[in-house]
Structures are given as C-alpha cells and as structure tokens.
Amino acid sequence: MVRFLLGAICIFIVVNVQAQTISVAAYTDTTDYLVGDFINYEIEVVTRKNIKVISPILPNTLTQLELITREESISTEDEKSKTTIYKFIIAGYDSVRAVIPPVVVKYRTADDTSFKKIITDSVVIHIHTVPVSTAEEIKDVKSPITIPYNWKWLLLWAAIVLLIIVAGYYSYKKYKQKKSERPVEKKIIIIPPYVKALIALENLESERLWQKGFVKDYHSRITEIIRNYFEERFDLPAMELTTTETIHHLKSIKEKEKILDITYDFLSNADLVKFAKFQPLEQVNEKMMKQAKEIIHSTIPQKPVITEEEIVNA
Amino acid sequence: MDIAELNEKIKNESAFIDLLLGEIRKVIVGQKEMIERLIVGLLGNGHILLEGVPGLAKTLAITTLSSAMKAKFQRIQFTPDLLPADLIGTQIYNQKDGNFLIKKGPIFANFILADEINRAPAKVQSALLEAMQERQITIGKETFKLEEPFLVLATQNPIEQEGTYPLPEAQVDRFMLKVKITYPARDEELAIMRQNINNTAKQVQPVISPNDILRGRELIKQIYIDGKIEKYILDIVFASRNPAEFGLNNLVDMINYGGSPRATINLALGAKAMAFIKRRGYVIPEDVRAICHDVLRHRIAVTYEAEAENITPEYIINEILNKVEVP
C-alpha cells in the first residue's frame, strides 16, 4: 500500500538557469519498481517560443539501467511559452538503487547561432525483486483450464453457415431459372430488296389505283417503291433526292448502263403527273409498271440468297 | 388555265430569259448561279444580299443586267458618315423663289448596288430597308413611288471587321436571297484574263424592257405549285424551327431560331421563279432545292455552341435537305 502511494507521487526537480528563458525538469512516474518494470522517464522543457531545443540524449553512464525505447516528444504552446516533453522508457533487471544521471539539453535563441546548455537534475529510483515466501509449501504447476462452451458463439457461427447455404441455393436456383428463360435466338430471314420491291409492285397492281381514277396516287406509290428499292439495293438516299439528283447518283453505280435511261424516263413521267397535273394515257400508266419491274429485274444481284419458298412465306 | 396550256405559255413568254442570259454572258464569264439568282430576285420582286470577296464581278453583273434591260443603275458606297438624306434625297431651299426644291437621292433607280451596307450606321440601313420594303420614299411631305422593277443588291463585309454595323436579323430577313459568290473556275478565270487583256469584252445591248420583267412577274403568279411541293416547302422550314420533329436531334442545340414565314413565302416564290427560268409552268422539287440555300442561309441563326464548333447555317440546311423526304 505504501509502495502504491509512493508510486502515485511524481518527483520532479526544476532548474532555473536563465530566468524566463528556459527551464527543464526530469522525473519518473514513481521511485520504486520491480525488476523488469518499465520506468517512464520524462524530460520537460519549458521555453520561450523563439527558442529552438535539440532533443536530449540519455548519457552513456546509464550503467545499471537499460534504455528500452525513446517515444515521440509532445509539444504544447500557449501565448508566451512552449512546453516539450521528451519520453524515454527504461528498465532495470537487478535489485538496485539506481541513479539516472543529469541530462544535457542544448538550445539556442532565434537571433543566436551558438548553442547553450542546461542540465537536468539526476533522478534516484529503487528496483526491487519479487518477495518470495520460503515458509509456504511448494505447489505443482496448475493443469490446463477447460474453457466452457460459449453457446452464443456457436449459434452465431451456425447462423452464418446456414445463411451462406441458403444464399448459395437461391443463387443456383436463379441461375437455373435464367438459363431456362433465355430466349431462343430467332432466325431472321433477310428479304432481299428486289423481292420486297416486286411484292410491293404486285400489291400496287392489285389495288388497281389508276383504273379507279387515283392516277396521282398510283404514280406517287410506284416511284416510292422504286426509290425505296434504290435505297436498299444501292445504299442511295433516294427518298431524299430529286429526280436529277437520283440520276446523278446512279451514274456512279456499276449497273447504271442498264437502268439510267429507263429510270430517268420513269421518274420524269411520274414528276409530270405528281407536280404538273399531267393526265397520262392508260398506256403510260401500264408502261410505268413495266419500267418499274424492268429496273428491278435488271439490277437483281447475280447470286440471290433466298429460295422461292422463302419468298412465298414472306 | 390548263397546265399544258400554261406550260406552253410560260415556254413562249420566258424566252426573254435566254436573251437576257445570253447578253449578260457576253460580259460576265462564269458566275452562272449569281446571274440566275439576280434574275430570280428580279422576277420574285425581292432583294439580294451578296457575300463574297471583292473582285468577283458583283458590280459588273448588276451594271450589265441594267444595261441589258435599259434600266437605271446606281451604286451607293455605304460609309460610316453616310446620312439617310444622302440616300433618299432632301429638300433644298431655292433662294430665287424662296421655295424648297426636292433633290432626289441615288435610290431612285431600277438597280441599286448598296456596297458594304454594314459600314453605314443603323439609321441609313433602315432608310434603305424601308425603301426596299415599301417601294416608296417620303421626302418632306411628298411621297414618291419607286420605279419598277426595283432591285437592291447589297454587299456585306464580314462583321468581325472594325467599324461595321451588322444588320439586325429582322432587317436581314427582308432580303429575299443571300447569295454566296465563290471564285471562278480555272478555265473561267483564263477567259476573264484574256477578255481583259485583249479588251475583247463585247458591248451589251438592251434586249429586254422593264415591262418584260413585270409581265414575267405576272406569269410567275400563275405557275402551278402542287400541294406536295407546298408540303415539302413547309417541311423544310419547319425542320429549321423544330428539327427534333423531323428526326434531326443533332440539330436541336445548334439552331437558335429557324426560318420565318418570310422564308416560306420566299422559298415558294423563288421556286416559282426558278421554274420560270427553266421555262416550266409548274414547280418541281429541284426548283425548291436549287433556291433553298439562298433563301434560308440568312434566316437560320446558329447558337453559340454551334458557332464554337464551326457549324454554319449551310451545314444545317444540308442536314435538313438530306433528311426531309422529297415528294
């Protein structure tokens, strides 16, 4: 108890060297230690703000004690002064009265290039061995202690394992479901432009537009079919081109020889009907259909990629 | 009138266009489009804003046109100190009889070349543009009708130049066409060089009268324009206003404002005039497309963002024409 009380008392000695400039103090957390205890040795330096202090080093004369480590210094400042605490951990392994010798602290002011010194007081400590009672009986080494089952931990682990199993099961189920839902790739039958155009012409013919008096509509539709055909067959923006522009573009196409004159005649006749109220003869209307089919037939690619059956299905 | 009959009539009555073109080509080498647009402006009763570097025969073209028509021509050089009175005329005090005399300005002519119109301050510009619109001039208390045909051909400097007063959009809209003139082709330039060095340019003779133009204007009114063509014109103008409706989403952020109703009117008028020049009694989509750039390029304003990306009205018009379906 006495030792405990003594341990609570800190010893510190303050040395005033240059008044109001710098003061140092060295102390330990207590004066009595057991063998192998860590001794917290601190040097507190209080200076004016403009003073630079070199970190102190423990002297070599520390023979009965051993320096374990040196900790980071801690600095605090107020309006006037700066306080720095340098911490050392020391240990002693013999039962002894030990002295931590005075430590030199070097410092200099901001306007001075040379260093000055200030020395701490020495600190005395006592290191004791553990008291062993010889009167008591010698006991055997204790057997290992059996740790009782912690049911809470066991339950927690069981819950985690169960969760993992459930999550795994659902993931697998979902994957299987997705796999079964995956749409079957549909076979896309690409109908060649000439087939589309021929079908459209057949439909137009069956509507008998000009025979019913819708001559302008007939010419608009038939030119639309051919212009659409040009778009798909020759990658020509024919729907956005005028007759002259279409002919101009066709000139750059290989098959032009076959269709250039006939297309010009076909589109020009249609323009007259569409934009100039021209009332064509029956033969002209029939000729338009023939010309349209001729344009398509003259430009069918060499190797058709579709069967007759597919045409019928389309 | 039956369309075939009208077509025949137009074919006969528009014969003077070939005469006029032939006479102009005696002096002007190349610049076919500019000459054609001049005649479109003349027949469409509109005015033309010209854009092009100096030396491209702008003045020569209009003087030749006036000579071939036996019409009066005036060139007015617009300067920062020009006053409205210098343009339209003023009242002068006569000391002999103590009365005010009216001195008419150079605007009293059939063909006016308003050179560098944006060099003059706004008050002079508006005096000219008012005369263009009203076709009459008021000096003091007297109002004078301008003699028909009255065609103003204005040239504009690039607005980046110092000391220029750019024409407000509302006033630019009053020009029927904005024509861009480019350099002549190599062989054309060779012919120009030889013509000037050897002084072989022929004398232009008056081959038509102003009455021919007035009669042509009357005939143009009769030229047939089909509903499909009208729809095509509307589609083009509306696409310049609401590009998204025509699938031109890339133009939405590029257009500040599109063509005005004047654009629609002038596109139809210009297309009719083009049909007349081509000696047809009806309009076809080619006529609309031929005149479309000249009618729309000064009526479409691009946004700052588009300007930063060097997007021009020309690009926007091309995009529209490539998207709007031809009837």
Question: Topology of this protein?
Answer:
The complex is a heterodimer of chains A (314) and B (327).
Chain A: H1 2-8, E1 13-18, E2 22-28, E3 32-34, E4 38-48, E5 51-53, E6 66-70, E7 74-77, E8 81-91, E9 96-100, E10 104-109, E11 116-119, E12 123-128, H2 151-181, H3 193-207, H4 215-234, H5 243-250, H6 256-275, H7 282-298, H8 308-313
Parallel strand pairs in A: 3-12
Antiparallel strand pairs in A: 1-2, 2-4, 4-8, 5-10, 6-8, 7-8, 9-12, 10-11
Chain B: H1 3-13, H2 15-27, H3 32-43, E1 48-51, H4 58-69, E2 73-77, H5 84-88, E3 89-94, E4 99-104, E5 111-115, H6 122-134, E6 136-139, E7 142-145, E8 151-155, H7 169-172, E9 177-180, H8 186-197, H9 210-222, H10 227-241, E10 255-257, H11 261-277, H12 285-296, E11 301-302, H13 304-308, H14 313-323
Parallel strand pairs in B: 1-8, 1-9, 2-5, 5-8
Antiparallel strand pairs in B: 3-4, 6-7, 10-11
Helix pairs in contact in B: 2-4, 3-11, 9-11, 10-11, 11-12, 12-14
